[in-house]
Amino acid sequence: MDNTRSKSTSHHLLTIGLTDFYHAGALKGLIHRSQWPRFETRIERNTLRTLELLDRCATKATFFVMGWVAERRPDLIQEVARRGHEVANLGYYQRAIHEMTQREFEEDLTRSQAAIEDATGIKVLGYRLARPVSRKEDLWILDTLAKRQYAYDSSILPLFRSFSSEDWRCFPHQHRSGNNVIWEFPWSTWKCLGVRFPIAGGNYFRQFPHSVMKKGFIRWNRSCDAPFLMYFHVWDLDSEQPKITSASALVRMRAYRNLHKMPGIIEDYLRAHRFGTIADHMGLRPTPCEPTVLRLMKHEPRVELEREGVHPEVVVANKWLANSKKFRPRITIVVPCYNEGAVLPYLRNMLNSVKQSLATEYRIHMIFVDDGSTDGTWQSLGQLFGSQPDSTLIRKPQNQGVTAAILTGIREAETDVVCSIDCDCSYDPHQLESLIPQLTDGVDLVTGSPYHPQGKVFNVPAWRLGLSKTASFLYRSVLRQKLYTYTSCFRIYRRSAVIKLDVKEAGFLGVAELLGKLDLQGSKIVECPTTLEVRLLGESKMKTARTIAGHFYLLGVFLAARTRQALSGTRNEGICYRVDSGTR
């Protein structure tokens, strides 16, 4: 081990994470990487905004880039390099070290390096983990990077008392592994009473007073001959980014607090002091490289589809499909919308993917019902879907409720198979692929069921789960159909069976009323396990107390109807079918 310190430099180091807002570490527990293609991307505007700020301040920076981003936006990575900034590796999926074995780390390193070098044509010199490491037992990554001939790493955060016996690790230093050497540039910290605190930028700049952070920087300048390493993400400059409404107060604070102040804070540092890239500090110059032999994305159409919001596992041969003579039945998908302006770009990406995945089996028509929105939803629907020939837009003059909107779409539909989905995509519409085939002859309704033993629920608050499961228990006690879920909007309807129903409740209660009336008339119902995820964007429109009281009223109505049927000798025995998650 060599603890040789870096020589003094005439400038400090600026590093920038080139990631989108939904990649933020604070949101990791809410947003899985399989959901990334669904979001409206803001990475281009945020990167260009960052580049303009650096141009104004005559500053160069090291951009740490995700391989996932480099594959989808090579043009953006090329622009960063064209403007004279360094492009380094942030890993492919931005995973923390504890999420990978050593073998997985090496595979991730290979894949991300290939994507970045293919985008820029320049050899990658540096690496940073998405989450910094503060434990000695994680330093094996330096051995791996040194073996791969990386010139430097910037993944260590000497937090609190970590590395207290090796204070030299808190500054740029060499790490030797056999005959290989790599430089480590740790995140800058401020030592107070024997404890180290981060002062390097990003979230810390947003959470703590600017004056306190500046004192740490000034103290570093006076006492250290090593360069100060500062960082932020391009989304740190975007105070208008969509907010994940299901996030806890702590997560919202970490992700969004003081975003509006960040451009001014960063510019203050850049105008007062000289910053540059890590490569320039080390005296390294860009080295051209040949296109990587390893092409991880073997099908370029797959990249294009995923960039447009297509599900990562779906690649459709559109030319073959256009020439195919296979009979594909027509179906309609109804999407009720009420004040969902923040959700619609996310919905568009999701539906593009759904249409691609279902296109080999069905001819799809979309019906969007604006239920009297007041937030610009109608205008957004027109911009996003109005020009699509497979879409119909309906505007209701006033808000009547989700069930009324669904029934409006069903009446407008020209097909007997009509799907209803939630605009917020809390049920992934890709699950329609499993539900639609269950609407066989004689079946009038297929309902998605997250509370089915084979269903799943992610990040939904416990109080909401408790209320929903209690309602299901009560409906199960009153109705013939012994289901696990009675209140899901994620369904497949047989239009001819539903169009005749006299539904009184127009809001969320109407969804249970629809199912209950089909039950009372003896319809066949299939329950299919599905996955329910917490709403990520926008606000729920449900009035909890009013809905609870309404369910009790509706249960009373159903109980009275069942009693009348029993007294009159009516025997419309509804039949419930359940399918497991392995059924297509």
Q: Please, could you describe this protein's structure?
A:
By secondary structure, this protein is an alpha/beta fold. The chain folds into 2 domains: 12-281, Glycoside hydrolase/deacetylase (TIM Barrel, Alpha-Beta Barrel), CATH 3.20.20.370; 300-578, Spore Coat Polysaccharide Biosynthesis Protein SpsA, Chain A (Alpha-Beta Complex), CATH 3.90.550. It is 36% helix and 17% strand. The strands form 5 sheets. The chain has an 8-stranded mixed sheet with strand order 14-13-12-15-18-16-19-21, sandwiched between helices. Strands 1, 2, 3, 10 and 11 form a 5-stranded parallel sheet that branches. A hairpin with a 2-residue loop joins strand 6 (173-177) and strand 7. Helix 3 crosses helix 4, helix 17 runs parallel beside helix 20 (544-568) and helix 19 (509-520) packs parallel to helix 20. The termini are far apart. 43% of the residues are buried.
Query: What name does the CATH topology of the largest domain carry?
Result: Spore Coat Polysaccharide Biosynthesis Protein SpsA, Chain A
Largest sheet: 8 strands, mixed
Distance between the termini: 57 Å
**Total of helices:** 20
Q: What class would the helix/strand composition place it in?
A: alpha/beta
Output the CATH homologous superfamily of the largest domain: Spore Coat Polysaccharide Biosynthesis Protein SpsA, Chain A
Radius of gyration: 28 Å
The general outline is elongated
- How many domains make up the coordinates? 2
Number of strands: 21
Helix-residue proportion = 25-40%
What is the residue-mean pLDDT, rounded to a whole number? Answer: 86
Which CATH class of the largest domain is shown?
Alpha Beta
The neighbouring-strand order within the major sheet is 14-13-12-15-18-16-19-21
Oligomeric state of the chains present here = single chain
Second-tier CATH architecture of the largest domain = Alpha-Beta Complex
